[in-house]
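User: Fold this; tokens only.

Assistant: Input:
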Amino acid sequence: MSARDVVLGRVRRALADVPREERPEQVPVVRDYLASHSPADPVGMLAEHLADYRALVHRTDAGGLPELIARLLAERGSGSVVVPAGLPKGWLSAVPADTVRRVPDAPSVTAAELDAVDSVVTGCAVAIAETGTIVLDGGPDQGRRRTTLVPDHHVVVVRVPDQVVESVGQALPLLSPVRPLTWISGPSATSDIELDRVEGVHGPRTLEVVLVRE
């Protein structure tokens, strides 16, 4: 008997008393587990975990956001930036249009063209403090998934405390499973068997997270 047969046999025995006509949605699922460990400072925990993952974390208020984004792009030497259709217009108001080309998040823009773009600026759907994770769901201020995976530099804005939740359990009810969810914990990275870390393999090499207190 193979391991597969053993596993399937256990599944059949576990389901032996389930009526054939019963559907999963008809059975209530008990969710009395702890949804969060209730950190004293969720925003501070988020910033700490993001930094642990080698993301660059910045803090500002709504008034200082345009100048901060302009500075981050300038320090990067960005000559072009992807702009999602729903990105608040004021966010890039301090970025000089004559030196930094705006690339629209349009279906006609190819992956090769995105690869030539220096940076992308987006919002997010939610941020999770306990795991240091930023979640994108393709909303108007985030654009298509490829726009945040191909360019090498991603600046993502998180409104705090409104967009910060404590745990994954609190984040899931806020997200739609039919949307293209991208979960980001630091810059894209991988390592080989020797544990040599390589960044930028399947996403941005540099992730900058701006925590904006409104």
